[in-house]
Amino acid sequence: MSAVPGPEAGGPNGQVPAFARILLKLSGEALMGDLPYGADPDRIAAIAAQVKQVTDRGVQVAIVVGGGNVYRGLRAAAEGMDRATGDYMGMLATVLNALALQDALEQIGARTRVQSAITISEVAEPYIRRRAMRHLEKERIVIFAAGTGNPFFTTDTAAALRALEIHAEAILMAKNGVEGVFDADPRENPDARFLAAITHREAIERRLQVMDSTALSLCMDNALPLHVFNMDDERNIDRIVCGERVGTVVST
After folding, report:
1. What is the tally of structural domains in the chain?
2. pTM over 0.85
3. Is residue 71's pLDDT more than 80?
4. What is the pLDDT of residue 205?
5. Range of the domain at 210
6. 4 lies in a domain?
7. Residue 71 is assigned to a structural domain of this protein
């Protein structure tokens, strides 16, 4: 993996970032707030502020966003539908989320680009790897929409794929109301044990809810670390970028 030039200056409090380039994976549910489905403008604005804080430190940030918050409202309509058709609907949902996040970021002064894996030329650039990397070098936040552009692949797989393509140093996996990885679902099992560190292989073999097995295998084969953290704490992205141990680290 080729090296990414490191940021030369620290952030507002003088801390030098531990990463030069990261990929943030946001689920669609992370944008819902307390809504049953759809997007909460206040929640999106809070996420945008966290991302802007990190870019102000000189860190290059790419984002992959899911579409579960929109697709949840379409689930009844998709009942019995062909899997590929449903997946394409999910890809379009991620485009909606990407545009909402782009708008929130630009309202607070961030420079952004949305790149879509399916062609929607009126609202987003097509995904072109070298162009994405050039945007990052110019300190623009790049939001990757429409997953991989293929049915049967999740946005987790898109996150792993894009992170490897742009030479990101780590994936930050945002979870809702969960501090990291547990050996069981903490919402269902109060005795679930928190795991501060785990390997990709262990996560696959134990079928832990980190990301799907295809994405985990990609990360394992390419030694790409994951930082799984609670999105509800608005300091967490910045703390991880500054080198603090937050949540669970999944590595080889």
Report:
1. 1
2. yes
3. no
4. 94
5. 21-251
6. no
7. yes
